[in-house]
């Protein structure tokens, strides 16, 4: 055999040996472990959230004028439902397509809740349908204050501002032609601690002011004056009617009832006379101002005042809120009088 043929045969045998060894190694490899089947975790039930209604926070946006600061949290302790207010802006509703000015207030009432009667601070929203703001002033009055104040609402950090519905919150305010305005207050509660007591109390005595020039005001017709006489040991609180009461007889009755000291009789009478003079002067000025305003008023403005409407909204009854159906009343305040309709 030739040398080349021997080398070729030896090479083939070597290759066959290597292949056989590789096959033996493969056969002796441990079998792969079987993979565990993954147990699927139970999937949680999908959560569903109700879509927010377009005017859902409207009642909260209207500042509750005249509510004590420390009572504000109690107003919002319940999830009050004002869907009646929201529905009023829908097609066919009382406020649909109209320019409306809203302000809030509260009415403490004894109402049933969870089987017992409780005094609850009930939120109320008043809607004024008008082509212009009903007033830019606030009245400040209480039994404790000697005189009523009518001041610009901006002095109390209040103003009419446009309400932006939820679906329009991403839009620029100046591009929206808002038809809903709310009485807003920018006074921060955190700053109340530094506020003087008299200034703080003013907020509790605030009432949204309204003057109706087309009819005589109750104050113009009134013949009563509130008397707060600074006597010792305690002030004398009473009402005096200059048409029905005779001053000497009125004073003697107070002395008999130990409400007034006999030595203060003359001083008290002078005090009452001065208050009566002030009230008569105020009544006369009010009549003159109303006559002047009417003379200068355009027919368009007169028509607006004639067609102005007040709607008073109470919360809708729900299972988790107190029942207020038996305490609804048309009276708004001494300036606005009664609402045209309660809802």
Automatic annotation (TrEMBL):
Q: Which InterPro entries match?
A: HIT4
Where along the chain is composition biased (Basic residues)? 1-10, 30-39
UniProt-annotated stretches for the region Disordered = 1-50
- Report which residue ranges the record marks as coiled coil: 269-303
Name of the featured protein: Protein HEAT INTOLERANT 4-like isoform X1
Which residue intervals are annotated with compositional bias (Basic and acidic residues) in the record? 13-29
List GO BP terms, alphabetically.
regulation of cellular response to heat
Q: Which organism is it from?
A: Durio zibethinus (Durian)
Q: Which UniProt keywords apply?
A: Coiled coil
């Amino acid at each position: 055999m030739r040398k080349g043929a021997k080398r070729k045969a030896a090479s083939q045998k070597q290759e066959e040996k290597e292949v056989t060894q590789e096959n033996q190694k493969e056969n002796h490899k441990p079998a792969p472990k079987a993979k565990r089947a993954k147990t699927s975790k139970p999937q949680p039930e999908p959560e569903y959230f109700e879509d927010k209604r377009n005017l859902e926070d409207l009642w909260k946006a209207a500042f509750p004028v005249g509510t004590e600061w420390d009572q504000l949290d109690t107003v919002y302790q319940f999830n009050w439902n004002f869907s009646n207010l929201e529905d009023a802006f829908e097609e066919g509703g009382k406020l649909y397509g109209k320019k409306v000015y809203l302000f809030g207030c509260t009415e403490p009432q004894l109402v049933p809740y969870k089987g017992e009667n409780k005094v609850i601070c009930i939120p109320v929203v008043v809607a004024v349908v008008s082509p212009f703001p009903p007033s830019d002033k606030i009245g400040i009055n209480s039994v404790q204050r000697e005189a009523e104040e009518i001041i610009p609402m901006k002095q109390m950090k209040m103003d009419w501002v446009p309400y932006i519905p939820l679906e329009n919150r991403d839009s620029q305010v100046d591009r929206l032609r808002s038809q809903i305005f709310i009485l807003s207050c920018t006074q921060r509660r955190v700053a109340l601690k530094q506020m003087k007591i008299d200034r703080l109390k003013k907020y509790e005595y605030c009432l949204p002011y309204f003057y109706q020039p087309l009819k005589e005001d109750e104050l113009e017709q009134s013949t009563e004056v509130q008397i707060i006489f600074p006597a010792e040991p305690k002030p004398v609180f009473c009402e005096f009617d200059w048409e029905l009461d005779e001053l000497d007889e009125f004073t003697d009755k107070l002395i008999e009832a130990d409400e007034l000291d006999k030595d203060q009789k003359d001083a008290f009478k002078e005090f009452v006379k001065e208050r009566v003079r002030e009230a008569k002067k105020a009544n006369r000025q009010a009549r003159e101002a109303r006559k002047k305003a009417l003379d200068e008023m355009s027919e368009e403005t007169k028509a607006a005042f004639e067609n102005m409407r007040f709607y008073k909204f109470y919360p809708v009854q729900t299972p988790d809120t107190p029942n207020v159906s038996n305490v609804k009343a048309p009276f708004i305040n001494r300036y606005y009088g009664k609402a045209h309709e309660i809802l």
